[in-house]
Amino acid sequence: MKKINFLNLGKHPITNNFLSTANPKNEFFYNLKLSYHTETKLISLNNFVPPKKMFNNRYAHRASASMTMRKAYADLAKKIKKKFNPRSILEIGSNDGVFIKHFSDIQNIGVEPCKNLADLTTKMKIKTYDKFWTFLLSKKINKKHGKFDVIYSANTISHIHKLDETFKAIENSLNEEGIFILEDPSLLKSLQKLSYDQFYDEHAYVFSITALRNITKKSGLEIFNIEELNTHGGSNRVYFKKKTNKKFKISNNVKRHLSTEKKYGIHKFRTYQIFAKNVNKSKESLIKIFQSIKKKKKKIIGYGATYKSSTVLNFCKINKNYINYFVDTTPTKSGKFTPGSHIPIKAYKGISDDVDYAFLGAWNFKDEIYKKEKKFIKRGGKFITHVPYPRIL
Ligand code: TMP
């Protein structure tokens, strides 16, 4: 059993650490390296960043910042009610309540270690534990509220370093016929789109179905259904049940996903060596695009100061020399500077008329952005993206 390193993305800051100055002192950096686990085929960061450095009272990300996500969570809540009719629901990583608020008619509990976010949902009268998800917390919650019909967790389990304990705690908090729904970026999609920006401090893991099955083999849980989503550039919604629960049949799509991943070579180290080579080529080509635009003295801004973009900017060493500033709709990001690359972030008020190019930090919201930026596009403004390969759109 061994972790083998396959890609070194260099030194990176805490993606959530939006700075109040362009010249910070003692900014924290760590080595962002990716590794492959020979037994479970799990892809992870080589060295993890201490959780309290990332998830704290200053956490900037608001899950409800984009219309696409607000609608996706509202639709999912409706679907869960219709399909499973739960009497109780627990969300691990409840963020600003964008999902869990739709369940105020039943027992709805949130777990959210970032206190500034937990305070938001507490104010919305949702019982929220401002704690990290652990076995101990699951015992405490069970004692107070009983076990749950549904446990839901989007973009959070991939952030938790101790996966065995995490799944054990989930199993412990589920009713016998309860289900656990996990939503996280898809490793297959990240490889196919060459979206290396899926890797950053918070994403300790990017899951394949293959690895998820392997790491939960020892637990009492099993996968019974999978849905593919467009969110975050391609995610999987994975449904787990207790192995003892015969109420839900295992869908054929589980086998189908495993076989698609096998065909792609998700289990082979060679696949990751090829990925690493292509990521380095992608870097060179993106830098060339920025350089050639700058040579023509054109103005480039960034659109969406996302966590993903932090990986791209820091890996490709793109800074203020290339991007004048970012625009972003999240109020807590505006007036700040991007971590590591120190580019100013302005509150979004449309794209100003002197901008020639906008680098799509939020490339996964391209459709939403294109709808909004018709005027920019009409007057000849262009977007730059790096997925699936660097180009001007
Ligand atoms: P996320 O990819 O982590 O959800 O973050 C998306 C970020 O992009 C968030 O800070 C909001 C920003 N954003 C914009 O500024 N404008 C937009 O039109 C969209 C869709 C996102």
Could you describe the 3D structure shown?
The chain is α/β, with parallel strands linked by helices and 393 residues long. The protein folds into 2 domains: 3-36 and 270-392, Rossmann fold (3-Layer(aba) Sandwich), CATH 3.40.50.720; 42-266, Rossmann fold. Helix content is 33%, strand content 24%. The chain contains 12 helices and 17 strands. The chain starts with a strand and ends with a strand. 46% of the residues are buried. The mean pLDDT is 97. The structure holds thymidine-5'-phosphate. The site of thymidine-5'-phosphate has 17 residues, from α11.
Attribute tags:
2 domains, alpha/beta, binds thymidine-5'-phosphate, 393 residues, six-stranded mixed beta sheet, Rossmann fold, seven-stranded mixed beta sheet, single chain
